[in-house]
Design a protein that fits this description.
The protein has 15 helices and twelve strands. The chain is an alpha/beta fold. It folds into three domains: 207 residues, Growth Hormone, Chain: A (Up-down Bundle), CATH 1.20.1250; 50 residues, no CATH class; 219 residues, 3-Layer(aba) Sandwich (Rossmann fold). The protein has an eight-stranded mixed beta sheet, with helices on both faces. A four-stranded antiparallel beta sheet has the order 1-2-3-4. The radius of gyration is 28 Å and the shape is elongated. It starts with a helix and ends in a 12-residue tail after the last strand.
């Protein structure tokens, strides 16, 4: 080979390694998001072990099959790229067709399916690892530069998903990532046959991308319709057609996720948005709907409910919805009149609607997920009564604790309702957005940004065996002791609502910077008695076990 040709081939090999490394890491991040939605957030971290299995198996296989190291490098890279592309589609296609529910029944069938999925999802990492390993083994003199290309590609791959998951969704992002394998086949120093296969594969990927598919289908559908059918459906009623990626990979939530409670009862999904932090679904919700009179005719218009990764519901009230007097999100306003409020975690905007209804003087609301803000301020602004456009309401994109730390404002009320929700993962582990909203240091910062008589309210699940509420109270008591409070119990209160389903009870933890006054305690006591709240902890009163120690 001529020296110039060798130099050109060397550059192409480096670029192929860069692309396959970028694609494999971007795929890993994407699969995290898919697993968090179609499985549960607990299993999102499995992607890491799956990738390690694939890369490790590739290295072991190549070391055993020594004859493969003597194959032409360009041909090996091209084949590797095409196999990476094909295998990247298999696992998501299987999962979209039949998601696994880890809270469902467990038997040998489920165990075997999990094992099969584990191996299938490892395949693209096997082929990526094989391509990288064979390049390093055949080009030892360039190992440092090849490794550099690998590391740069991997680093960019970790962030590449941010560029296209919102406009293309998970399915479109999968196609873009997989198509990089076809690009590797085109760029690899090999013959025209494999390059041609790469070009066709790349064009095939482009044709199913949601923005491009509608323009391609008129040309392709007549040709596809002539293909023989593998089922007995009437070809006139069910013709073959070129499906877009989001129909080929129609990811569904695990059957035990809360969104299915709505959709199984006929509630429509009004909007879906993928983001690097999770999938957002907006679903009809009559619980926060309202009666509307139109031309003398009265009808009920639905509100909505926002779900993150198919769970962690956050209600999005209709503009005419009136918060009930017993609303747990309004407990703080029993003792705080016309407060200046900071809401951490907007969700569907329930806290915002309650704050406006209860007469909050000013409201700052912080949300970490830009997709949530975009939906609330844009598509669903009219539904919610354009709360975000009120002169006394300000929405901010950012992480709640960082916002508090970076501003000097003092608030009469800081409220966090179910923030730090179940989106791979709730407490910050295995997640793309770390959250430390409930640490001692965080509580200190919130109290520092309260007025002298300010109130911090945290709403969490109140399970029959207390976990979240109990832990929050313990942390709050420790913080108050650190701040020199002799009797923290005079600054703490916990009221728990009562529902038929004990697993969905909510507890409102009230942490006051100064001690509760007798009047405030009496107001909370009357509120709890009037609306059936359990008085788990009230200053000067008798606490319910296990909150009396």
């Amino acid at each position: 080979m001529h020296a110039d040709q060798a130099h050109e081939a060397d550059r192409r090999v480096h670029f192929c390694i860069f692309l396959i490394s970028l694609a494999s890491l971007a795929l890993e991040v994407l699969q995290m998001r898919i697993f968090a939605f179609s499985l549960w957030h607990h299993l999102a971290f499995l992607v890491v072990s799956i990738a390690i299995l694939g890369f490790g198996a590739a290295g072991a296989f190549l070391s055993v099959a020594g004859f493969l190291r003597r194959r032409t490098l360009g041909r090996s890279l091209a084949v590797t790229g095409l196999l990476f592309m094909a295998s990247a589609f298999v696992g998501p296609w299987m999962l979209a067709g039949k998601p696994i529910d880890v809270f469902g029944s467990v038997g040998w069938d489920e165990i075997m399916r999990v094992a099969l999925y584990y191996l299938v999802f490892a395949l693209p990492y096997f082929f990526a690892g094989y391509g990288i390993s064979i390049a390093l083994s055949q080009c030892p003199r360039q190992s440092s530069t090849l490794y550099f290309a690998n590391m740069v590609g991997s680093g960019i791959g970790c962030f590449a998903l941010y560029a296209f998951i919102e406009p293309l969704g998970a399915a479109g992002s999968l196609v873009v990532i997989a198509s990089l394998g076809a690009v590797v086949a085109v760029l690899a120093p090999t013959g025209f046959l494999l390059k041609g296969a790469g070009v066709l594969a790349f064009l095939g990927c482009l044709s199913v991308l949601p923005p491009i598919n509608p323009h391609v289908r008129p040309l392709v559908d007549p040709l596809i319709a002539k293909l023989p059918r593998l089922d007995d459906k009437d070809p006139k009623e069910h013709p073959h057609r070129l499906l877009p990626a989001d129909e080929i990979f129609a990811f569904r939530p695990a059957s035990s996720k809360f969104i299915n409670t709505y959709t199984s009862h006929g509630k429509k999904i009004l909007a879906t948005r993928w983001s690097p932090l999770g999938r957002i679904d907006i679903v009809e919700d009559h619980l926060v709907g309202a009666k509307v009179v139109d031309g003398g005719t009265e009808r009920v218009e639905e509100g909505a409910c926002l779900f993150q990764d198919g769970d962690a519901p956050g209600q999005m009230p209709h503009r005419n919805w009136k918060p009930p007097a017993a609303q747990i999100h309004g407990i703080s306003y029993v003792i705080k009149k016309e407060p200046k409020v900071l809401i951490i975690g907007i969700g569907g905007g329930l806290d915002l609607s309650v704050a406006v209804d209860r007469g909050a003087k000013e409201v700052d609301a912080v949300e970490i997920n830009a997709a949530t803000l975009d939906l609330y301020e844009g598509q669903f602004s009219k539904l919610t009564g354009e709360v975000a456009k009120r002169p006394n309401v300000r929405l901010h994109h950012g992480e709640g604790r960082h916002y508090v730390r970076s501003h000097d404002d003092k608030y009469d009320l800081i409220q966090m309702s179910g923030v730090d929700t179940y989106t791979a993962l709730a407490n910050g582990s295995y997640v793309l957005s770390e959250s430390y909203l409930y640490t001692k240091e965080a509580i200190h910062e919130y109290l520092d940004h309260l007025s002298d008589d300010g109130l911090l309210t945290i709403i969490r699940f109140a399970f029959p065996a207390p976990r979240e509420t109990l832990r929050a109270l313990v942390i709050a008591a420790e913080v108050l002791r650190d701040r020199g409070v002799a009797d923290p119990m005079q600054h703490l209160a916990l009221l728990i609502n009562s529902t038929d389903d004990k697993a969905t009870n909510l507890g409102a933890i009230l942490i006051k910077k100064s001690a509760f006054t007798e009047g405030e305690v009496a107001d909370l006591d009357r509120f709890a008695s009037a609306y059936g709240y359990k008085k788990a902890l009230l200053p000067g009163g008798t606490a319910s076990l296990p909150f009396d120690k």
